[in-house]
């Protein structure tokens, strides 16, 4: 499968619950109205009657249900919306997906239902802003959707997968749980048939079972909710402009309070106008007014059909608490005596005052659950955001939370993501994060991308929410460096498990070596034409260091017609005890992968000898920042699998992908050299048979085969390493290796050769033990 789980799930959704176009037929129907349902047994017929009478299913034509017809994603969307009680706006005529149109004679009826699925975050489409309404859905995709709709996605990912070759690796846990819950069953031959297209009869019975188990409100509200901040009210000012209060800051200082206000002035006329010279004041609950000073960087004019953002600030030297209630625009006429003041506009702001690091969002309507959709308050935009994954990483002793946020452009023109960030909130503390992607990111109409935020906290901090913050600035007169601050209005909670390693990435149970991995849809780390597979995972004891050495080998194959850069990926292993080991990527000499070829990238792991895992959770991650030749910075998980370690090789079958090595025979002999001084050497004669995968290119930084001469006590007497490419490379046939310049006390009769695969990484040489030649 080339689609990520979110895409697969949306595929399943689009096909799982199928209501046909003929749903609008008048009069209650039953199975008796369809000739091809007459042969059903009584129990199955009762399920069909329930779904037909509820208006969820109808026939494909007059008197024909289409029992064994394949169902498409458009039909599925309608049934999904009905079964899970989604809010459907039947007046919608324009879709956020480019291939969904109300004028489509075959699938146009499904537009409101497809949009309902998207609004509920149950689908993000098929890819590149499309939904593929006519596409088919497989049985394993159906299982994934039903379980996700029942809020059992995490349970499915943690379920031991089926041992069934008809089920894709990513879907084995979903198939197993679907069978356990009696949503779906195996075929007559005992297999699940996961990759086969789902038919209407299967969809009716599985949808019926899901409907019986569905509890209204059981789907996480974050999948159905959107955080709505109150729209900014506009006030007309003399001179043709309209004013809106974008934000209000009130934060504690040593002498009292700092108050800042940002307003937006809009010019809807066809000519440039001057920014009016009015005083801006804040009023407190006791009726006191304080005049704000304009920023030295404020604009002086507003272009036609445009707007400007203006910043104001002042310090209030009051030790007691102050409650701001209003922002006032005042016209002050100083040409008369006494001066005359005219109130032009009064904007209540009590609900949007932001108290800096002490701010707490108490309004439940402004605090969504994890995954809730939100817009940036005060910004006119079609961009919608939702948090999709969270991981906890460490920089030294300080934990850093990496929050992945999905951005979707539901508008009809390209937009650039505005400047905002996330703040981690704990009891009495706030930790302002930063966006990892520093360059501007633009989304075309209908496009979806991901951005990431890094929030570093103290070691003992327990976060309870994330706040969405907008950066603001104020420049004092005569200064060159502006004062930076943040304000916010909305936020969202952490995932239900408390916020470590929560993700929507594909998870496929037990991984099958050599099969292409399925990555999270929309990630920008893996080129769509790049096939990535894990070829080897070995964990062996390292007697020299007293720990274990793990070595994972990934194959990256370019299926396209242009060179593809080797992606900056990280790969972590988590053992059965919950400890995570970060892989050190080999030093690479290859920067691009030529069309039609592949490369091998190895990762070395230092694992304590106390770890007795024979299976590991493998998280493949995109490196977000600070990476150079394997030095990882912030990471975002894009695929997750359970991987079993491979057994150690004997000397007749050594796997060093892309090579296979057979050490057919060997002899070890001792030589004496008397000139210029007395020394000794050993000569190892080998008869080798080497084969390789011709699709994969190997450069000079690839693994080497290391031969170590050891005595009877295990002490090393010397070693030599030989590459698989370049000068002195290993080849099939007979060849000799020497261990020279040994002193007399190093000469032993009981000696042997230990064979290792040696990989050079930025953290040093990683040696994987292979076999011992005695």
From TrEMBL:
From the UniProt annotation, give the residues forming the signal peptide: 1-24
What Pfam families does its record include?
SLH (PF00395)
Quote the InterPro entries the UniProt record gives. Answer: SLH_dom
What PROSITE patterns does its record include? SLH (PS51272)
Which keywords fit this entry according to its UniProt record?
Answer: Signal
Q: Where is the SLH domain?
A: 97-160
Name listed for the protein in its UniProt record: S-layer homology domain-containing protein
- Species this protein is from: Paenibacillus violae
């Amino acid at each position: 499968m080339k689609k990520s789980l979110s895409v697969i799930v949306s595929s399943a959704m689009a096909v799982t619950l199928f209501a046909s176009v003929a749903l609008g037929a008048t009069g209650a129907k039953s199975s008796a109205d369809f000739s091809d349902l007459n042969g059903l047994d009584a129990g199955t017929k009762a399920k069909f009657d329930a779904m037909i009478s509820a208006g969820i299913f109808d026939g494909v034509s007059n008197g024909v249900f289409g029992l064994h017809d394949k169902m498409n994603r458009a039909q599925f969307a309608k049934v999904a919306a009905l079964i899970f009680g989604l809010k459907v706006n039947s007046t919608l005529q324009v879709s956020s997906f480019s291939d969904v149109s109300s004028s489509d004679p075959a699938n146009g009826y499904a537009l409101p239902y497809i949009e309902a699925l998207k609004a509920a975050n149950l689908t993000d489409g098929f890819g590149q802003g499309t939904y593929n309404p006519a596409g088919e859905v497989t049985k394993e995709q159906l299982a994934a959707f039903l379980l996700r709709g029942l809020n059992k996605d995490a349970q499915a990912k943690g379920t031991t997968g089926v041992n069934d070759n008809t089920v894709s690796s990513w879907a084995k846990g979903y198939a197993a749980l679907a069978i356990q819950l009696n949503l779906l069953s195996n075929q007559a031959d005992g297999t699940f048939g996961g990759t086969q297209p789902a038919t209407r009869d299967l969809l009716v019975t599985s949808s019926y079972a899901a409907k019986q188990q569905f509890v209204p409100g059981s789907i996480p509200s974050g999948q159905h909710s959107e955080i709505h901040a109150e729209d900014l009210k506009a006030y007309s000012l003399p001179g043709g402009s309209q004013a809106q209060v974008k934000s209000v800051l009130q934060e504690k200082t040593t002498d009292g309070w700092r108050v800042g206000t940002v307003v937006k002035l809009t010019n809807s006329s066809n000519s440039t106008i001057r920014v009016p010279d009015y005083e801006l004041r804040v009023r407190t609950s006791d009726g006191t007014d304080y005049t704000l000073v304009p920023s030295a960087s404020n604009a002086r004019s507003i272009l036609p059909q445009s707007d400007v953002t203006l910043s104001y600030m002042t310090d209030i030297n009051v030790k007691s608490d102050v409650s701001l209630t209003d922002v006032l625009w005042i016209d002050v006429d100083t040409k008369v005596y006494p001066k005359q003041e005219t109130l032009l506009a009064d904007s209540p702001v009590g609900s949007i005052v932001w108290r800096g690091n002490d701010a707490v969002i108490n309004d439940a309507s402004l605090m969504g659950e994890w995954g809730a959709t939100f817009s940036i308050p005060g910004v006119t935009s079609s961009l919608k955001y939702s948090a999709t994954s969270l991981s906890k990483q460490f920089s030294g002793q300080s934990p850093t939370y990496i929050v992945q946020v999905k951005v979707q452009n539901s508008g009809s023109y390209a937009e650039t993501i505005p400047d905002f960030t996330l703040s981690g909130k704990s009891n009495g503390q706030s930790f302002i994060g930063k966006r990892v992607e520093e360059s501007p990111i633009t989304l075309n109409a209908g496009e979806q991308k991901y951005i990431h935020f890094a929030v570093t906290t103290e070691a003992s901090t327990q976060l309870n929410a994330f706040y969405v913050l907008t950066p603001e600035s104020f420049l004092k007169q005569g200064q060159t460096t502006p004062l930076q601050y943040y304000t916010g209005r909305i936020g969202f909670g952490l995932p239900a498990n408390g916020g470590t390693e929560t993700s929507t990435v594909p998870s496929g149970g037990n991984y099958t070596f050599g099969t292409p991995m399925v990555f999270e849809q929309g990630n920008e780390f893996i080129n769509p034409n790049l096939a990535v597979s894990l070829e080897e995972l070995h964990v062996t004891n390292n007697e020299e260091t007293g720990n274990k050495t793990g070595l994972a080998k990934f194959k990256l194959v370019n299926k396209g017609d242009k060179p593809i850069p080797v992606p900056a990926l990280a790969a972590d292993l988590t053992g059965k005890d919950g400890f995570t080991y970060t892989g050190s990527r080999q030093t690479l000499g290859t920067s691009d992968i030529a069309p039609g070829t592949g490369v091998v990238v190895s990762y070395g792991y230092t694992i304590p000898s106390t770890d007795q895992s024979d299976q590991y959770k493998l998280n493949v991650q995109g490196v977000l920042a600070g990476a150079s030749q394997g030095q990882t910075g912030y990471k975002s998980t894009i695929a997750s699998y359970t991987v079993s370690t491979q057994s150690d090789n004997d000397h007749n079958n050594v796997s060093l992908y892309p090579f296979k090595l057979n050490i057919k025979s060997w002899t070890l002999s001792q030589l004496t050299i008397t000139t210029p001084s007395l020394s000794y050497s050993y000569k190892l004669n080998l008869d080798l048979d080497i084969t390789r995968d011709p699709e994969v290119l190997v450069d000079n930084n690839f693994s080497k085969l290391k031969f170590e001469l050891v005595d009877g006590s295990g002490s090393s007497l010397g070693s030599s390493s030989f590459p698989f490419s370049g000068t002195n490379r290993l080849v099939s046939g007979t060849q000799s290796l020497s261990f020279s310049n040994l002193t007399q006390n190093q000469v032993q009769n009981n000696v042997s050769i230990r064979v290792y695969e040696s990989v050079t990484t930025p953290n040093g040489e990683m040696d994987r033990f292979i076999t011992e030649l005695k």
